[in-house]
Design a protein that fits this description.
This is Rhomboid family intramembrane serine protease. With 223 residues, this protein is mainly alpha-helical. 65% of the residues lie in helices and 9% in strands.
């Protein structure tokens, strides 16, 4: 299933959702302009590298935030920005512009910490907006479980578009990541060579913290 848009209109212009998407795109375009050596140095500076974070928390804490704006490829960027485009505007409206931005960054940082906790000595850079967006999904599930998501569905050679309730779409996202997260732990335990891949525990952590933080942020009224 591939979400296209939701049938959940807003009455505001989601400036920060647009701004976050724009920043991610601009930074990625900078990434693709770099040579492989320059890109490696760029990731060393701004991605969260668990081993370095463990050894130098005071000097590396900013990577909890800078890593949220880095992406490892076009599909990584496009899929993340699509989810942010679909689900971010409703959460921005519900929280208010500035609280939404803080919520987004806070979820992303919490997600990065969850991934770090799983592999504190890993030398593989952790990056991407997925953890922050998972937090947005957690809030969306909490507040708009019955919202209809126009979804592209592939069934072999048959392709169609159907309405899927948010609780199904987002619920499947969480369950898939939970299963894959535990599978990745088992795989890591059975392997002697460190490998990269999807940061499932960042997704899980971001989602859970999003569901926890969203009601807390709503306690404070105003922008």
């Amino acid at each position: 299933m591939f979400p296209l848009y939701d049938e959940n209109p807003t009455r505001i212009t989601p400036y920060f959702t647009y701004g976050l998407i724009g920043m991610n795109i601009v930074i990625f375009l900078h990434e693709v302009s770099l040579s492989s050596g320059q890109l490696e140095q760029f990731f060393q500076l701004y991605a969260l590298i668990p081993r370095e974070f463990t050894n130098n928390l005071a000097g590396e804490w900013t990577t909890l935030f800078t890593s949220q704006f880095l992406h490892g490829g076009w599909w990584h960027l496009i899929s993340n920005m699509l989810y942010l485009w679909i689900f971010g505007n409703n959460i921005e409206e519900r929280l208010g512009h500035f609280k939404y931005l803080i919520f987004y960054l806070f979820c992303g940082a919490s997600a990065a910490l969850c991934q770090w906790f799983i592999g504190m000595n890993s030398a593989i850079p952790s990056l991407g907006a997925s953890g922050a967006i998972a937090g947005v999904l957690g809030a969306y599930l909490l507040w708009f479980p019955q919202a209809k998501i126009k979804t592209l569905v592939f069934l072999g050679f048959f392709v169609t578009i159907i309405n899927v309730p948010a609780v199904v779409m987002i619920g499947l996202f969480f369950i898939q990541n939970l299963i894959s997260g535990f599978a990745s732990l088992q795989a890591s335990a059975n392997m002697s060579v460190e490998t990269g891949g999807v940061a499932y525990w960042a997704h899980i952590g971001g989602f859970v913290f999003g569901m926890i933080f969203a009601p807390l942020f709503r306690l404070f009224q105003g922008e």
